[in-house]
Amino acid sequence: MTQLFVGTFIDTPSAGELRIRSDHLLAISPEGYISHLAPLHSDSSQLLLSSLPTSTIPTEIPPHSFFLPSFTDLHLHAPQYLFNGTGLDLPLLEWLERYAYKAEERIDGSRELAERVYERLVRRLLDNGTGCVSFFGSIGVESNLILAKKMQELGLRGFIGKLSMDQSPRPTYGESSASSSLQSIAQFLDSLESYLSTYPSHERLVQPIITPRFIPVCSDELLVGLQKLAKQRDVRIQSHMCEGRDQMDMVMKRGKRDHEYWDELGFLGPKTLQAHVTYLDEEMIPLVKDRQVTMAHCPLSNAYLSEKQFPLREAIDNSLSVGLGTDIAGGYSPSIQTQMRQAVIISRMREGARCESMNCSFAESAHKEGAGNHLKVDWKESLYLATRGGKKGMGLGGCFEVGMEFDAQLIELANKDTPTGTGALDLFDLTSDTKLDDDSWTENLERWWCVGDERNRKGMWVQGRKVA
User: Fold this and answer.
1) Could you tell me the CATH number of the domain that includes residue 84?
2) Which of 25, 82, 98, 236 could form a disulfide with 209 if both were Cys (CB 3.0 to 4.6 A apart)?
């Protein structure tokens, strides 16, 4: 049946644009899509209400609560949640060998462990407001199907990438040849399709995504085969690109730079997601923009494992497709809210280094001749990346617009019993009778962005279904 909500809906249709719609009526179709959104007292809303059965009563959102689109995590290694929060003092390739490959091997070797880790991970993500994820899995077919079933049953939307890697540096963890790797990914695609066929199309929350781990562990034969398979099956592609100096140096031994290699093989396109791309520069920007590649910015992980930080300001200014990723376990927090904050912090550090190179202050840089554009990113832009930016890059919604899937989180700033603030929020100008205008909503939303946590989240909906 149709669901109705009345109250405040906040989203970010574009980078830097905060849209606040108070006293609005939102309708959700039985299939989970937004079918109506307009002011409550508008003619269209009143007409809708009069056309529905009298038993269809709108749910009122409390005065100091609001709906926000759920977060999207564009890059997360699911089996690495097993050791999350350890080993981040190591360089990337050593870290992979000592921790990542071992964890993935353990997950593939134990169905019970995969069940336990993946159920905990999916629940943790929903608790943190994440409604859509692009997962890197492991090389095993069964463990990736376990992840798919946990997502589907618990209500997490996302993409699952069964890893492909036929040149693994670890003797006990890898695929023996390009042909066996291609057979394995085909088996996974067929098995996932068979499992999802039991659900109506609008209830199928999981999609496969072709996932060569990165160029150094994949032969040319495998990469060519995966690209061909992605086209044949119309499946999205994800990998790592230009993440760190050591990884890029390994690719250069094949005679081309990382992004050149991907492009020559035909991997860069509108259905391609590349994680990190921290070495994005003026030469690479036109290529990424022309190919319509989506990039997963993983600010916390990059601070630990990359020598360079992603140029987020330049990416936004050039209208590139960007979202945020946790990169568990390279980043230790499953919270996209943490990644939003970290993205802003890193941008300000980049701007500080730029100002210092010109021997000027933040204030002076705006007026200094030849200073160029600043590198700061603000909280509203990071909120766009966490919601609309990431979802749009994956061909989904991420806003409150008619026709988009209703993936949303209900955030409470305060309630009638605690008008001074919920959770970590301390609000001094709010009473139980206060009616917030747009300026007040913006101010309090920024406070939530800075210090809010899971205590402010009072519900999660994915495809119109309440899941947490």
Assistant:
1) 3.20.20.140
2) 236
